[in-house]
Amino acid sequence: MDFSDAGEGPSPATAQWVSAVSRRFQYYLDKLAPHPPARWFAFLCVAMAYVVRVYLVQGFYIVSYGLGIYILNLLIGFLSPQTDPEIDGSDGPTLPTKGSDEFRPFIRRLPEFKFWYAITKAFCIAFVMTFFEVFDVPVFWPILLFYWLVLFVLTMKRQIRHMIKYRYVPFSFGKQRYTGKNVASNDKELAEDLDDSNESSA
User: Fold this and answer.
1) Separation CA 12–CA 98 (nearest Å)
2) CB under 8 Å to 82, separation ≥6 — which residues?
3) How many angstroms separate the Cα of 40 from the Cα of each of 32, 62, 152?
4) pTM, whole model, 2 decimals?
5) Contact status, residue 97 vs residue 123, Cβ threshold 8 Å
6) What three-state secondary structure class fits 81?
7) What are the average pLDDT values for consecutive 10-residue runs of the chain, which has 202 residues?
8) Which of 93, 107, 131, 194 sits CB 3.0–4.6 Å from 82 for a disulfide?
9) How many CA atoms are closer than 13 Å to the CA of 126, on its beta-carbon side?
10) DSSP state of 103
């Protein structure tokens, strides 16, 4: 009896099917990438489904606590710059700390699309876990909620201090326009030169 094929992994047909499903899934993800409102609306629907499920069954609080800790971790990555001066030192580009520093766009450690994908996947996994009684560990949920709120406040306080120290805002509101005094004075001088040239030619 030949046992050489035992334990070699999935068959070629199964591997091909998994690869096709993975490519199809990635195709739809790429299609969703340029549509943030639709993506976040879908996330809100998934989150509401999870909240309603937990409310109806009145359980799975430990799953919700783990989900909250994971969301807090994702949020820190979403609000943090890709290059942190406190961690990376002076290597590579750093955030501007003075008004005279060169403008550098804010680059997140965790991009918006990856943040959306990770948080949506986390809610989906947590929703599936609510159908297995083994994850419904009996706990006193007010203590978990209080502990999570304390962690959230302390973490956000540290993050806001970091933002104030290095003078960056992790959100952009439209395209910035630079209309400083030098630009305005140069435009005024250019207009005066054009007027003088027009008068001399007339």
Assistant:
1) 59
2) 107, 108, 109
3) 10, 25, 22
4) 0.71
5) no
6) strand
7) 52 84 87 90 96 93 95 92 69 49 68 94 95 91 94 93 81 52 48 53 50
8) 107
9) 28
10) P
